[in-house]
């Protein structure tokens, strides 16, 4: 194992990284020797131990991202590892376990598909755990999105009822486990009856098969409607989701698994009277260190489940990881671990 270096020491001259030089298929993911990143003041250099693979990175690889993404680019919107360098007056010290995500990494600047990554100190979350890197590597973006949606987006409280639309997605499964830990009753949807068991394994109280009658199914269980709904499928079903929520309840739009992010002709009157509609697209700061610590403890204790689809070892397996994610055949997060 490489020892973390003290703040201010020179970076390694080169490192291995996955580079996308042009949009394309799996062959656009090239493993190269590149200059190691040089830390800037206010930034932290992290020795990457693991990272999750996300739809955002598939979009970057295919050239379907917005103008923020330029090439060549090292993808990777999240990662976990150990601090290698930080400002001398920083609370972050070499050797600390840390997570980082979002904030432009892997998009406007190089991301975590590499042996080292540099990120602004504000988006680094320290933690301590004995959990293996493949488990921790699945968490940052997935848990940040799920936790932020439930708290910032929905202000979910113990004793309330929650509907998750798109429940077998990684964020949906994570949201279910976090909501149960918060003390909520969870309803969650899947398009396949065969996947109901996955929802129950995540703690879902009422798995629902999405056959076009979700509002009716919800009202059979909760005649007044649920207190809150997390929309992960997108605009194609949002009108239905709004009909599942009680008056003064809230729907949070977080994702669009079906690919539809906008309405061709939106009318505010599609929102039922008294129902609140909001959205969530947060950053690393929405997952405070104490919250991450609580979640890590809950995982260790067996109260939270981490939906991991498959673990890949080494950057050399990145094409397999992208192929596995795109196939959609295995639920959960695809995680790449960088073995020493």
What would your notes on this structure say?
- The protein has 340 residues and is α/β, with parallel strands linked by helices.
- 25% of the residues lie in helices and 26% in strands.
- It has helices spanning 55-62, 133-136, 140-153, 170-182, 196-201, 214-221, 235-242, 289-301, 318-327, and strands at 14-19, 30-35, 43-53, 78-85, 97-101, 116-120, 124-127, 161-165, 185-190, 206-209, 226-231, 245-253, 276-279, 308-313, 333-337.
- Strands 3, 4, 5, 6, 7, 14 and 15 form a 7-stranded mixed sheet that branches. It has a 6-stranded parallel sheet with strand order 10-9-8-11-12-13, sandwiched between helices.
- The longest helix is centred in the middle third of the chain and has 14 residues, at 140-153.
- The chain starts with 13 loop residues before the first strand and ends with a strand.
- Residues 1-8 have low confidence and may be disordered.
């Amino acid at each position: 194992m490489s020892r973390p270096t003290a703040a201010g020491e020179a970076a390694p001259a080169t490192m291995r990284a996955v580079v996308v030089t042009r949009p394309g298929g799996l062959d656009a993911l090239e493993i190269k020797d590149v200059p190691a990143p040089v830390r800037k003041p206010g930034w932290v250099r992290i020795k990457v131990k693991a990272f999750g693979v996300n739809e955002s990175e598939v979009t970057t690889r295919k050239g379907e991202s917005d103008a923020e993404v330029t090439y060549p680019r090292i993808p990777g919107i999240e990662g976990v590892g150990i601090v290698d360098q930080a400002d001398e007056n920083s609370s972050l010290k070499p050797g600390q376990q840390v997570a980082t995500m979002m904030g432009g990494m892997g998009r406007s600047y190089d991301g975590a598909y590499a042996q080292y990554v540099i990120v602004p100190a504000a988006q680094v979350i320290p933690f301590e755990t004995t959990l293996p890197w493949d488990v921790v590597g699945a968490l940052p973006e997935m848990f940040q999105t799920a936790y932020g949606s439930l708290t910032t987006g929905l202000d979910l409280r113990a004793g309330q009822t929650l509907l998750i639309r798109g429940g077998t997605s990684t964020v949906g499964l994570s949201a279910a486990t976090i909501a149960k830990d918060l003390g909520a009753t969870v309803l969650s949807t899947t398009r396949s009856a065969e996947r109901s068991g996955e929802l129950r394994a995540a703690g879902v109280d009422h798995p629902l098969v999405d056959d076009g009658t979700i509002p009716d199914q919800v009202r059979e269980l909760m005649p007044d409607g649920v207190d809150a709904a997390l929309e992960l499928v997108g605009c194609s079903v949002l009108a239905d989701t709004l009909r599942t929520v009680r008056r003064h309840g809230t729907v949070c739009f977080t994702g669009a698994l079906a690919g539809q992010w906008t309405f061709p002709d939106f009318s505010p009157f599609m929102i039922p009277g008294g129902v609140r509609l909001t959205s969530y697209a947060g950053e690393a700061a929405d997952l405070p260190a104490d919250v991450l610590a609580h979640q890590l403890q809950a995982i260790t204790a067996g109260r939270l489940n981490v939906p991991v689809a498959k673990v890949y070892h080494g950057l050399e397996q990145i094409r397999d990881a992208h192929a596995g994610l795109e196939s959609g055949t295995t639920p959960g997060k695809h995680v790449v671990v960088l073995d020493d």
